[in-house]
Amino acid sequence: MDSLSSLILPVIMIAVIQGITEFLPISSSGHLVLLPALTGFADQGAVMDVAAHMGSFFAVLIYLRADIGAMITSLPTMLSKSRTPFAHLAMLLVLASLPAIAAGLVVEAIDPEMLRAALVVAVANLVFALWLYLADKQQIRYQLASETGKFDWSQLSLKDAMAIGLAQCCALIPGASRSGVTMTMARQLGYDRLSAARFSLLLSLPIILGAGTVKTASLISDSQPINMAALAGVMILSFVCALGAIRWMMGWLKEASFTIFILYRLALGIILLGLIAAGVIA
Q1: Are 55 and 235 in contact (CB under 8 A)?
Q2: Could you report the per-residue pLDDT of 74-104, keeping only the tens digit for each?
Q3: Can you say how many angstroms the Cα of residue 114 is from the centroid of all Cα atoms in its chain?
Q4: Domain-by-domain residue ranges, the chain?
């Protein structure tokens, strides 16, 4: 039983942590980096990481199905002068994803492990929590979200979308949070909180899909053994947790600010620095 628990518990924790933290502005990669250090669990490897990310990918796919359907049907107008707001959105998503994809390929080619230190996670949480705090104090200049729940994407400019896309490159630092930096930049530019969060969700789709494809291709070429039951379990659990977290976050941001996430990240960063100083984690 102990042997079975030692195999199942880490897998469950990976799926739950990935699902809950992927789209909240608190850094999923930072939490996953810390899991072995704080629990003593062995690293479950790239296969489980890919499964957890794909579970969260399908969660955002389901949550944003209306937006995605609208973008697909409007693709024929993307390159025309009369393109629809959703064709405009699709074009912005493609262009804004390019900087992070390029940066990710460079880091993957050099050394993907070079930033995965607990100290990096701690400092990144403090620095990016401070930036989110300052950005969230900005006055709202672009109210894309309406009371009916619709979003006017025609107000989102190419310049601002590219700025958000460039900020997304910071997510290569564990603890920075991809969702966090994209929402932060959007708020810095004056967009309302719901629009910032929704664009961040949309922007996650090409990034997660691209990263998952690259890692899957690498795993196939390495001929690593795969436990299909564990793989399916991680994907399903991550999907459920991610969908719940997305719904909660979007509901929260209708009524409140990012303060709860800022306080959490500051507390996490301070606690980690204390554990590092005490020698509890390396």
Answers
A1: yes
A2: 988 887 878 899 999 999 999 999 999 898 8
A3: 20
A4: 2-277
Integer Cα distance of 188 and 182 in angstroms: 10
- What is the CB neighbour count within 10 angstroms for residue 170? 21
- pTM (2 decimals)? 0.90
Sign of the C-alpha dihedral computed for residues 89, 90, 95 and 96 taken in this order: positive
Listing DSSP states for 192-235 in one string gives: -HHHHHHHHHHHHHHHHHHHHHHHHHHHHHHT----HHHHHHHH
Query: Which DSSP symbol is given to 75?
Result: G
d(CA 236, CA 14): 12
- The rounded radius of gyration (Å) of the Cα atoms in the chain is 19
Better pLDDT: 275 or 185: 185
DSSP 3-state of 117:
coil
Question: Which tops the pLDDT comparison, 4 or 57?
Answer: 57
DSSP structure class, residue 278: T
What pLDDT, in 10s, does the model give residues 220-253? 666 666 677 778 888 999 999 999 999 999 999 9
